[in-house]
Amino acid sequence: MLLVVDIGNTNITLGVFENEDITATFRITTKIQRTSDEFGMLITNLLNSRKIELSKIKDVIISSVVPDVMHSFENAVVKYLNKKPIIVGPGIKTGIKLVTGNAPEIGADRIVDAVGGYELYGGPVIVIDFGTATTYDYITEDGAFAAGITSPGIKICAKALWEDTAKLPAIDIRKPDSILAKDTISSMQAGLVYGYIGQTEYIIDKIKEEADDDRIKVVATGGLGKIIADSTDKIDIYDSNLTLKGLRLIYNRVKGIS
Fold first, then answer.
1. Whole-model pTM?
2. Spatial distance between the Cα atoms of 81 and 87, rounded to a whole number of angstroms
3. Residue 104 pLDDT > 80, yes or no?
4. Rounded distance, CA 60 to CA 6, Å?
5. Domains of the chain
6. Most exposed residue of 127, 172, 184, 231, measured as fewest CB within 10 angstroms of its CB?
């Protein structure tokens, strides 16, 4: 079994693969203050809850955009799983060519998503990850990471709305039945969700226009991405486990597994 780990700004997502199949997924909050023992106990308890024996985890691969977590998390994997994890970073074999001017600055999560989108669904492809930030990455037909767009995530937008206004309440993010809102909460939900659908559609159209390619497939992932994906025909595929699948594909490439 392979343990894959995606350490994001808000959550740490873990997945267990048996060959190509995901047998379990877990999500915990990203907290910099945790020690290696705390991480180790969390990992072991999560695995035990699904009756996954620690001895069956043969390898671990990690993607992270939170450097301050890595020391404790890596040590936890070494101490509790007795494995030296593979870290996605510069020099690792991914199969994606980085042709942008700031290649070293591209986050590991974006590379992993690009691998998943391109290898599983083919290129050219736009991969959208609706996370803490929303990222739109364009991968060409021959597997080159050609461009990336970053915008505030929908939760960031929602938080700004109620924290920076005196009378607006915190709300659940969901799509109301109509944009013609009749109360404060549904008016906020309408502005957030319908506004985000509009942003998503415009950016997709603009990428296709400037790339001069209508064949580009659009693949989305990320926690709140399903709300948007279900509300527009601009997104072709929604894959909630795209990042975890991308990690498995990178692991296979590093290990020479076809």
1. 0.92
2. 16
3. no
4. 11
5. 2-87 (3.30.420.40), 97-106+123-240 (3.30.420.40)
6. 172
At residue 61, what are phi and psi to the nearest 5 degrees?
A: -130, 140
> Cα angle vertex 247, ends 58, 85, to 5°?
45
Q: Which amino acid is at 230?
A: D
**Residues comprising the chain, all counted:** 258
**Residue at 101: amino acid letter:** G
Walk across the sheet containing 2-7 and list its strands: 21-29, 11-18, 2-7, 59-64, 86-87
Residue of 21, 59, 109, 230 with catalytic role = 109
pLDDT per position as a tens digit, 112-169: 999 999 999 999 999 999 998 999 999 999 999 999 999 999 999 999 988 888 788 8
The answer to whether residue 102 scores a pLDDT higher than 80 is no
How is the beta sheet containing 144-152 ordered, strand by strand? Answer: 97-98, 144-152, 133-139, 125-130, 217-221, 237-238
